[in-house]
Amino acid sequence: MPTVQDILRTKGGQVHTISADATVLEATRLMNERKIGALVVMEDQRVAGIFTERDVLSRVVAAEQAPSTMRVRDAMTRQVVCCPPETDINDAGGILRDRRIRHLPVCDGEGRLLGMISIGDLNAYHASQQEAQIHFLHDYVYGRS
Question: What is the domain count for the chain?
Fold first, then answer.
């Protein structure tokens, strides 16, 4: 069965992180610059939280907080759902669906951050697998061209 590690092999393990002491403005600028929807918040080499677009909307904009003075620690989601790299991709999809989240950090047994997958990564993986299967079936039915 394909695992989260298979997606990370293709995608790479780069994860954009930020300190809990950074301002929300710094975090949102980084997210805009990198064209990403989430940052993993790190403290002492460990995952302390996740800062997402949803956090910006609900805890900053809707609460009328100043992003230039508010700290990421005050806006981030603290209860982060992580998975190990050997997680089956269907199980990872179930976690994302059931928890209604779009980003899933991947950590090893010691809690070290190895990567992050998103619902978009899972959709792209499934689409590429379907495309490969269609190509295989086309070749099987019509012969190689």
Answer: 1
Return the CATH number at 42. 3.10.580.10
Which pLDDT does position 145 carry in this prediction?
57
Q: What percent of the chain has a predicted confidence (pLDDT) above 70?
A: 99
Please indicate, yes or no, if residue 140 is contained in any of the structural domains: no
Q: Rounded to two decimals, what is the model's pTM?
A: 0.84
Query: 53 in helix, strand or coil?
Result: helix
* CA pair distance 100, 131, nearest whole angstrom: 27
The answer to whether position 104 is within a domain reads: yes
* Per-residue tokens: 85: 């790299």
Residue that has been written with the tokens 């991947």 in this structure: 106
pLDDT category at 127 given cuts 50, 70, 90 is confident
Q: Which residues fall within 8 angstroms of residue 93, CB to CB, at 6 or more apart?
A: 119, 122
**129, part of any domain:** no
Kindly state the tokens that stand for 132.
Answer: 């490969």
- C-alpha angle 27-28-32 in degrees, rounded to nearest 5: 120
Q: Tell me the residue range of the domain where 12 lies.
A: 4-118
For the cut 60, the answer to whether the pLDDT of residue 28 exceeds it is: yes
> What mean pLDDT is predicted for residues 21-35?
97
> Which one, of 62, 69, 64, 78, lies nearest residue 27 by Cα?
69
